[in-house]
Amino acid sequence: MQVSIESSTGLERQLKIGVPADKIDQEVTDRLQKATKTVSIKGFRKGKVPLRVVKQHYGKGVRQEVIGEIVNSSFYEAIQKEELRPVGQPRIDDIKDAEGQDLEYLAIFEVYPEVKLADLSKVKVTRPVADVNAEDVEKMIGVLRDQQATFTVTEKAADDGDQVNIDFVGTHKKEEFAGGSAEAQDLVLGSNSMIPGFEDGLVGVSAGDETVLKLKFPKDYHSEELKGKAVQFAVKVNSVSAKQMPEMDDEFFKLYGVDAGGEEKFREDIEANMERELRNAIRTKVKNRVMDQLFSLNKVDVPAALINNEVTQLKQQMVQQFGGGQQIDLSMLPDEMFKEKAERRAALGVIVSEVVKVEELTPDEEKVRARVDEIASTYEQPHEVVDYYYSKPELLSSVEAVVLEDQVTELVLSKAKVKDETQPYDEVVKPDPEAV
Questions:
Q1: What would the pLDDT profile of 385-427 be if each residue is shown by its tens digit?
Q2: Residues 265 and 413 placed together within one structural domain of the fold
Q3: What is the CATH number of the domain that holds 228?
Q4: Do residues 348 and 296 lie in contact, with contact meaning Cβ atoms separated by under 8 Å?
Q5: Which of 354, 276, 346, 355 is nearest to 309 (CA)?
Q6: Number of domains in the chain
Q7: 254, part of any domain
């Protein structure tokens, strides 16, 4: 087999590969010879069809099959010979194939970049430290009770936390604007679901009141037509309803999966869930901060194929999150919308892979099992979930990938400058802003 590098630009490589004619012709002949014993052709007994007749009927198809297999095997032989690491499948061009002549073709593909990792001691990471205290638990219980609150119509004036049912019409320079009007809309005062000043302006109103709110849209409002514009809302109050918080009783506890044990068990479960959420939040924050540092310190060229893969994954995630179960053609979403984030993710993939290779890391089986157990602990039958994960290689491999990233994070932290920062629970569980 002959191999020559025709072009090497950036991460793209073009290999010209030649395969001797006798290798191909012999394989085609062998397969046709075997076919003479099995094919049925009108005018001949089965097993007695002459080779030339079989070749007339099936020669072209068999040759295409052989060529496809030899192109595949010779390409991988060629990249091993040239010590190249291709990204994805190659594009095969300029195939020259004729019986009795050597096969020639051009394989075009990208290779993984060479990465020279930065000194990990240059990494600087702030690691949040927090505990779940009694006040945090009380606050969480208040949030859960608020989620189950009901509203009862009242004659009193509206206060923060009450719900008003209103009709309103918004105008700018005496002209109504799109999306600025509604009828019989429920609004909880203090929910911050309307523009600044709207809800505050309704504190103190009663059923039957009418008022005009003179407000200004924020400068960063999503609508270009309304950014920073002065507007008026004519509001009619149809009713005021006071919030009724649920009692801390068995009926309430059952809403959160506590069927026995009363308030003590309910509080234990809430605290356990908060502890788990806190651990996950700290782990995620530290990992993301480490990845941010790795990305900043290691500049790499990223193969377009990897970026395109990440773009596709980001599109699929968006459709799953916001598509509402609809079948959406991913090509309708512009690539440019995801490109910057995709480039970062692809670059981090290359960098992390290099750390794994250099440090010879493999997924720690005990940590994989611990992560699976952690996932399973949120289900009613944890052992069934564990068995399911270990019966599905694709699921288990996804956990192994996460654990391997955790091991990379731990390795970096062992060499980095780490500063612990004590913070309240609420602050720690709040995600960091996305880097891209």
A1: 999 999 999 999 999 999 999 999 999 999 999 999 999 999 9
A2: yes
A3: 3.10.50.40
A4: no
A5: 346
A6: 3
A7: no
Task: Report the chain's mean pLDDT, rounded to a whole number.
Answer: 92
Task: Tell me which DSSP letter residue 430 carries.
Answer: S
> What pLDDT, on a 0 to 100 scale, did the predictor assign at position 436?
58
Question: Is a pLDDT exceeding 90 seen at residue 48?
Answer: no
For 356-380, what is the mean pLDDT?
Answer: 92
pLDDT at 88: 86
DSSP 118-168: PPGGG-EEEEEE----HHHHHHHHHHHHHHT-EEEEESSPP-TT-EEEEEE
Q: Using only the alpha carbons of the chain, give its radius of gyration.
A: 33
Whether residue 333 is predicted with pLDDT greater than 90 in this model: the reply is: no
Burial class (CB in 10 A: 0-12, 13-18, 19+), 219: exposed
DSSP bridge pairs for 236: 167, 210
Q: Quick check: 154 and 239 in contact, CB under 8 A?
A: no
Residues 302, 349 contacting (CB under 8 angstroms): no
Those residues whose C-beta lies under 8 Å from the C-beta of residue 74, and which sit 6 or more positions away, are 1, 17, 19
Looking at the fold, whether 207 and 354 belong to one and the same domain comes out as: no
d(CA 134, CA 140): 10
The answer to whether the CB of 146 falls within 8 A of the CB of 171 is: no
**Long-range contacts at 16-22 (CB < 8 A, ≥ 24 apart):** 16/104, 16/105, 16/106, 17/74, 17/75, 17/78, 17/104, 17/105, 17/106, 17/107, 18/102, 18/103, 18/104, 19/70, 19/74, 19/102, 19/103, 19/104, 20/102, 21/99, 21/100, 21/101, 21/102, 21/103
| 3-class SS string, 260-287 | CCHHHHHHHHHHHHHHHHHHHHHHHHHH
CA dist 155 and 207 (Å) reads 7
Distance CA 293, CA 429 (A): 21
Enumerate helices (H) and strands (E) in the chain, giving the number of each.
11, 11
pLDDT for res 27? 92
Confirm if 155 and 390 have CB atoms less than 8 A apart.
Answer: no
Structure confidence by residue, pLDDT tens digits, 138-148: 999 999 999 99
Q: How far apart are CA 258 and CA 266, in angstroms?
A: 6
* Structure confidence at residue 326 as a pLDDT band (50, 70, 90): low
Return the CATH number at 18. 3.30.70.1050
Domain range enclosing 285: 120-133+261-323+333-428
